[in-house]
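quick one
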Amino acid sequence: MKVAVIGTGYVGLVTAATFSFLGHEISCLDVNAERIERLNKGEIPIYEPGLAELFELSAKNGTKPVFTTKAQQAIEGAEFIFIAVGTPPKDNGEADLSYLESAAKTIGTYLSDGAIVINKSTVPVGSGNWVRMLVEKGVAERAAAQNQSLAGFAQSLTKAHPVTFTVASNPEFLREGSAIFDTLYPDRIVIGTDDSKTRDRLEDLYKSLKEQKFKEPSFCKRPEGFGEVPMISTDITSAEMIKYSANAFLAMKISFANQIANICDLVGADVTEVMHGIGSDSRIGNKFLSAGIGWGGSCFGKDVQAIIKIAQEYDYEPELLKATTDVNYKQRELVVKRLQSELKILKGKRIGLLGLAFKPNTDDMRDAPSIDIARALIKMGAEVRAIDPIATENAKRIAPEIHYSSSLEELVSGLDALVLVTEWDAYKELDMKSVLSKMNGNIFIDGRNQYDPSALKALGFNYIGMGRH
Ligand code: UDX
Ligand code: UDX
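structure w/ uridine-5'-diphosphate-xylopyranose:
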């Protein structure tokens, strides 16, 4: 089937790679000419394991996507048009919908009769109707322009068939770093539409994924026992709410674990054991209960803020969601407070950060706890050094005031304190004896609770975990 994808960010590229791998004919549209040029050269502009490989498989199967900046080329003739443009937060927490607006208008200008316009971006509840209106406007403007031209006039005399389309919402739940896995083997596929034919056609598009009728790629194996993917069919507004609620719930789970961690600190319990204990209850589930310096990234903060705004527009104060955010950002301050209470005066102290990215396996620095922590320490006069396997270049652009070390040895030598910020595999199993021997002090803040407290204490570290000691 012919599919257009508008926006070649994380969501757009993963969507394009997946559908082309499944054998569909894909065209990707982006206004960023440099990005499109790179994609046409075979370069993948983001770091996402398996993405390049999936594109290669599609190329081998003869379904390599077309990347273009020409809207007409991408949209005309497409049966399905996925909108995957960014909806970044504005200063007041509301989602910036300008990219969505221009995408919808462009679609209206070029879409073919019977096309389905599908929102994959996380959009405020109610956007489905707004997109429909904008596309309609584009269609109407096109008709008016055609009527003004001679050819259009002739066409109107023959009573040209009006362009019809429907709108759907199909939220994604992919995590950066495992986006391909999450897309090929999802827990569910959510389709929100008010039209049964549209639902049937979308189910058809997803058929091979739903039934798992594709040869699993060698680099992204199907989990053992993985069966048919449930399809959840709702109206558009509920589908939009599902996306926000899923992220808000996950963010809340982590904030809950962090709040319990802080109480564990006070009473002398170990939060990793507590979370293991509660997570074994199938009603709670054991995922997303890792306490530490909290969540970051492009989604949780933005989505929780956006759903708070939506509620407030209806005069409702969502206390639980507000607390979810507050608890999260206080975890970052906690690291600074702990360092302050151990080192007393931070001025002139050398502090090293292990990891910069908001989580492992990505170079994404959006809302990364590392930046807030580093800035607070620098403000108090400390020298902050940091290292990351792949996010350093992105971090340099945001925070040039950090000293970026080129090796672990350079990072740790002469440090007063070391903080584990991102639990990259490489940082989970360091030779801590050798690390300590190069440091000036012995403070280790395990911001992700990865090390065995007693083992590090035995080596001579002043080990400080997040809710364990
Ligand atoms: C609860 C715990 O489930 C149990 O593990 C613990 O040992 C004692 O407390 P109980 O109060 O008997 O058990 O019933 P439960 O079925 O868990 O429901 C508790 C309350 O929550 C009920 O009023 C129920 O109506 C309500 N509930 C439950 C909801 O409102 N929503 C739900 O999704 C589940
Ligand atoms: C998230 C959602 O998981 C995904 O479904 C949605 O589509 C986009 O947002 P992502 O932001 O890529 O994905 O990463 P995720 O793996 O969810 O981690 C988010 C943050 O939570 C990271 O900073 C991570 O370090 C933190 N985290 C996660 C915890 O602090 N504890 C946990 O137990 C899990």
